[in-house]
Automatic annotation (TrEMBL), chains A, B:
This is Homeobox domain-containing protein. Residues 80-144 bind DNA. It comes from Urochloa decumbens. Keywords: Developmental protein, DNA-binding, Homeobox, Nucleus, Transcription, Transcription regulation. InterPro entries: HD, Homeodomain-like_sf, WOX4. Its main location: nucleus.
Length: 225, 225
DNA sequence: GCAAATTAATGATTTATTCAAG
DNA sequence: CTTGAATAAATCATTAATTTGC
């Protein structure tokens, strides 16, 4: 197994031309916060993931380039050791069910819920859920498209009036769903320290047409519709 | 100079079919949480139909679509009353300075800091900062591109070996910056309730070449304007 | 001068691409 | 080669400028 470095982007930075990275020295914190020191490892060792790698990863990028420049590179290392989320079969099962049920772009609240639910089957974060839907939606769509094309080329040059049935149907559905724009939410995204007081989120109503039972897998099963 | 209009696309949108918002009812919360009641207004304040333009602004949106569908619409209304962020001149000044300094894709920590700083000049959230950079970067880029094209067409068909100086320079810089992929962070994005314990963020080193003084505007005593 | 009507800017979301882990 | 992660491009929606008829 080849070990991967993270994005060690900052390594090649040395050669960076940067017309004139003029000054240097201090940065953000000048007037901002004493945050200087906190940015080491986040802690929370949480070992033992499904495939708990070895704690490899982090010795590498823990180094801070230059203590004085707080702004750049405040790296928070994934404490556990794993890099990317590796969904368990159960998690995938649930996600796919939700997808089949019609969910496409869950809002932050939904994501929260789903994450919490899926957390029972293994480590998972909100962003994983978010990305999963993004990717799945996109890739299903492109799969459809490919299939459609293939069908077309297969059937030679038939008048395109025929509904290709299988594919087309899903396509249509998907399309209807994604046509209308929906609003998402940042929720506490990127947590803004200062002015959270004012406005909250704006949330949304993601899929009005979705009606599946959210976690039918759960034994709890109190509520149906 | 010819002025171009943008997309007035939304005018014809009234005819939107919206095939069939079929079923309805239940959703997520089945086994999840009792969050039942908090979800008031479904959509963002201000009716947002395209043609609702002439209507009064806001009395409308208070209506709740359907009390039983918990999943959709967990809205927390912007308490202030306004919908979208409207940057103050000072905020813009700072943001542009950062941008000119080379910042392009601030990581969550940076965003936090910037937000905090800018919070002194008015209401602002992390996402606003995030979006600002996204948009500004994109639009600067497209401005450059347009300018470049214009330059080309203006100079007729000169051998493209000439460095167009002004434009090109910026372009090159921008390009260099954006070429290498950088990693962002979700931070607590979309807040995942359940398993936040584990891994934190992954952060990154956005602009390695950037070294500008972060908030020179208010070194502590006098602010710019 | 002034609102209504347009148009231009730009904040906010979604979709398409790209990168890289496994 | 599949797919999680991240960024860029495209799009939508709302607000500010600006124009226009009075």
């Amino acid at each position: 197994m080849r070990l991967h470095r993270f994005h060690v982007a900052y390594l090649d930075k040395a050669a960076s031309p940067s017309s004139s990275p003029p000054s240097i020295s201090q940065s953000l914190s000048s007037s901002a916060i004493p945050l200087a020191l906190q940015y080491l490892r986040p802690l929370a060792p949480k070992i033992s993931f499904p495939d708990a790698r070895k704690m490899v990863v982090f010795p590498e990028f823990a180094r801070v380039r230059n203590a004085s420049r707080l702004l750049n590179c405040t790296v928070q290392v994934p404490t556990g050791g794993t890099t990317r989320w590796n969904p368990s079969p159960d998690q995938i099962k649930v996600l796919e069910m939700l997808y089949r049920g019609g969910m496409r772009t869950p809002n932050s609240f939904q994501i929260e819920q789903i994450t919490e639910e899926l957390g029972k089957y293994g480590r998972i974060e909100g962003k994983n859920v978010f990305y999963w839907f993004q990717n799945h939606k996109a890739r299903e769509r492109q799969k459809q498209k490919r299939a459609a094309l293939l069908t077309l080329s297969t059937t030679s040059c038939l008048p395109p009036a025929e509904t290709k049935d299988g594919v087309e149907k899903e396509e249509a559905c998907e399309d209807a769903l994604s046509r209308k724009r929906r609003c998402r939410t940042w929720g506490d995204v990127h947590g803004d320290a200062a002015t959270t007081t004012t406005a909250e989120v704006v949330a949304d109503c993601t899929d009005d047409d979705v009606t599946l039972e959210l976690f039918p897998l759960r034994p709890d099963q109190g509520k149906a519709n």
